[in-house]
Sequence to fold (503 residues):
Amino acid sequence: MGHTGMDTDVVIAGAGPTGLMLACELRLGGVDVEVVERLADRTGESRAGGMHSRTLETLDQRGVLDRFLAVGEPQLVGHFSGLMLEFDASESRHPYPLMILQSAIERLLEEWAAELGVRVRRSSEVTGIRQDEAGVTVELRTAQASPATLRARYLVGCDGGRSTVRKLAGIAFPGTPATMTALIGDVVLPDLAEEYIWARRCPSGEFSAIAFEPGWYRVITSEYDRVAGRDEPATFEQLRESLIRLAGTDYGMHSPKWVSRFGDAARQAARYREGRVLLAGDAAHIHFPAGGQGLNMGVQDAVNLGWKLASVVRGQTPESLLDSYHAERHPVAERVLHNTRAQAALTRPGAQTDALRDVFGSLIAFDDVNRYLAGMLTALDIRYPLDGDHPLTGRRVPDADLKTPEGATRVHELLHTARPVLLDLRGSAEVAAVAGEWAGLVDLVEARSDDDWRVPAVGRIPAPAALLIRPDGHVAWASAAGAPDTSALRTALATWLGPRPQG
Fold:
């Protein structure tokens, strides 16, 4: 194979939710992608247990949400460190977390990826990477005797908390080490008299037993100041002993489907990009899995990165666009690490923490506090640092009802093709003229919106006169009533879509 020959545009290491979502986004952006996965098959382990509002919205933006709603079960409440939160039904069309196991999420994403023409190469482990001016060569250990190489323009490590890609790229992973050990397993619990146990506090930790699937319980035990060795295997016997230490009984536990361990180590990649290598999902950030934020953050990393990387590969935008991925997503993970450290602190055993939980619990009863914490967990309140003073700029676009000449629609339906949308709600000739300058790169949609728009962390605002929506559903430019600032619109179009096409 010649130096310039490419096997594919982008190689993604890891076929978990982040890698699969990124592969789908890249295909929607018209680039070729190959996913390499170390494991021979999907594990079938349930792992993460749900998706929050913003993740559900991103799937809705692509027109595939129904597949997930058909499998999952909406939950009307969430929690911050085991303290119950309520979600505001007016903030999103999908305001409640969807209880759906990671194994089902991966299956559905893999089916969608196959429809889009993504190739997934299993039993292929990344062992080396070499970058040069034109691309990156990825060395693989495969089931075959001879090592394989893949040559691509870019490599994205979506290969988990112990990411090989991150290590090979020389990206530091600073943070705080674990102070506790939690064990988690899906087992049969014949002697559990209650329907479920949620975060029961004990002198040395806490435990939960939740029915996730008929006949099976997810048992989670957390013990503080016991930190397991990194490579020590997690066993059914350890889970049983841990439950006996905490609860005084193992509830007749038997028939484990899987057992795993996690801690409260919180680390974040110092940078999300090193040349032609990028990181997303757990490869970029690990934390205590409190409030169900990890899988969601990874999928949202993928939706932020996918359209940008596709645009750079197509030659439409300069490579510097990729720097906005770190600029926008690194602070998001930083905040999740921060709130999960706080949640881990609130679960520590002892009288001081009991008192702190009481105070915190009484504060959550205040609407503003509940709304603030819920916005953080759902990621509906994220605002990327974009230029512009309209309250929507940088935020995710609300899924408002629209009337168009073709009939009724809603904002998120306009994003099914993963292209930028210039939505004109006042029939402005100036907006249409600017859209014409970027013809073929942006979809101009003229519509009407009769209602106020509800924006999490802001409240109700009048519908904007016009707005530029990026493929990830975040607003790059918005205009209130009056003459639109077309020079700011041109700047936004040039920034996110690349220079005006010539001709």
About this structure: The radius of gyration is 24 Å.
